[in-house]
Amino acid sequence: MTIKPFDFKLKDGRTATILSPREEDINGVIEYLKISAGETEFILRYPEECDKYTYEAEKALFERKNASEDEAMLLCLVDGKVAGNCGIQFSSQLKLRHRAGVAIALCKEYWNLGIGTRMFEEMEKLALNKPYVQILELDFVEGNTRARALYEKMGFKIIGRRPSAICLKDGTLLDEYMMQKKLSR
């Protein structure tokens, strides 16, 4: 699924663009994936795991997401650089299609500028365009207080916990929390 690109103002006065991924964004996305993976323990990959992201694989991913009716990937560009991405996935299964999964990540340099809020607003619009979708869902890792604050600001509530779901390189085990937001129509 694709969206019409749009611009918005960041808290620091710069202009950002949210758009569906394009082939010309592939190298920037691969670089963003590596950078963001090294900036926090709360992303579910380490930088060395990003070697699997190739130009060809990302191109195929972009094409699949853009052609799909059941999922969308959005990028945020600031000064031509990939600041972050988000995604939403819908289910076609009758018993599950009332739920949609969302995910988001930003490079640290772009935290606290309003990008996360604006991306969530766009994902919610996409969900509201599907009349059967009633709930948005996401997960976050224990200790990620910044993400939790954003999610709660956007109306998500914790509904469960997976104990010891994440194991860091040093052996530290972290819980993963599940959140939901009921959509208002």
From TrEMBL:
UniProt entry tagged with the keyword NADP: no
InterPro entries: Acyl_CoA_acyltransferase (IPR016181), GNAT_dom (IPR000182)
PROSITE patterns: GNAT
The keyword Transferase belongs to this UniProt entry's keyword annotation: yes
Keywords tagged on the record: Transferase
A GO molecular function held by the record: acyltransferase activity, transferring groups other than amino-acyl groups
Protein's name in the database: Protein N-acetyltransferase, RimJ/RimL family
